[in-house]
Design goal:
4-stranded antiparallel β-sheet, flat, alpha+beta, 2 domains, 13 helices
Length: 256
């Protein structure tokens, strides 16, 4: 039965993708069953607030057994982006970066950036629990893993890099050492772009096309959107509200 129709909130999940699970496993390896079970409850009940993910530093405020929340800090081992790109190039897997750009989770890249042991993910908490991984730390890591499940590039960010940086390093690392003007210069609208010498003749690529702005909620097929919402179990009385929410989300994603 649909969770919305039954009146029950959907069960939250984390680590349901290989990339999300790769971030969780080294931390859970130091935790016992009691702490993991309690942290799962905190995660499901959304006890983790103010989650901030910065390169090599994750912080959160976690509501626990006391009036004031506990402060959690997780400091993933930062990777060296040039080394990652060199290893991908050496194994002929630079295409993993393009796979990630398409929203996939390439194993070749995950194996180079994800933590592999507990020491790669040190953590601390202001709670009095002296266990290697307290409930609050675990709940925070679960929240981060849930974000990685939704957006794999979150793992890159937490480990100290991002996809644009890796792509730039991949473009600039040609073997003959030629300048970026020959191999990676970006051209604006109307200007050619010269990339890696795939065909051996330094052929300039045509300029990228310029597309006008399109509002998919109004200019494509709004009737199809409403049919899809009805099929997903959204009551007919709230479809208009759901469309408004989607429009606001689209505005935030595409706005300046």
């Amino acid at each position: 039965m649909n969770a919305r129709r039954s009146g029950r909130a959907p069960v939250r999940g984390y680590g349901i993708t290989a990339w999300g699970r790769a971030f969780v496993d080294p931390v859970e390896a130091e935790a016992d069953h009691r702490h993991i079970t309690g942290a799962r409850r905190y995660f499901r009940d959304r006890h983790v607030d103010s989650l901030t993910i910065l390169p090599g530093r994750i912080t959160a405020a976690v509501r626990g057994s006391q009036l004031d929340p506990f402060t959690v800090t997780v400091q993933p081992r930062r990777i060296d982006p040039p080394t990652v790109v060199d290893l991908l190039r050496g194994t002929g897997r630079l295409d993993a970066l393009l796979e990630l750009a398409r929203g996939e989770q390439p194993a070749a890249l995950r194996e180079l950036i994800a933590p592999t042991e507990p020491a790669d993910v040190p953590s601390s908490c202001t709670c009095p629990d002296e266990a290697p991984r307290c409930i609050h730390v675990l709940a925070t890591v679960f929240e981060v893993a849930a974000r990685i499940d939704r957006r794999p590039t979150t793992l890159l960010h937490a480990m100290g890099t991002d996809l644009p940086e890796l792509l730039a390093l991949a473009r600039g690392g040609d073997d003959d050492g030629e300048s970026d003007a020959a191999t990676g210069e970006e051209g604006g609208p109307g200007r050619p772009i010269v990339r890696e010498d795939w065909y051996g003749d330094r052929t300039p690529l045509p300029a990228a096309p310029v597309f006008g702005t399109v509002d998919p909620l109004t200019e494509l097929e709004p009737a199809a959107l409403r049919r899809a919402l009805r099929a997903s179990g959204v009551p007919a009385t709230v479809i208009a509200e759901a469309v408004d929410d989607l429009a606001e989300l689209y505005r935030l994603l595409t706005g300046p």
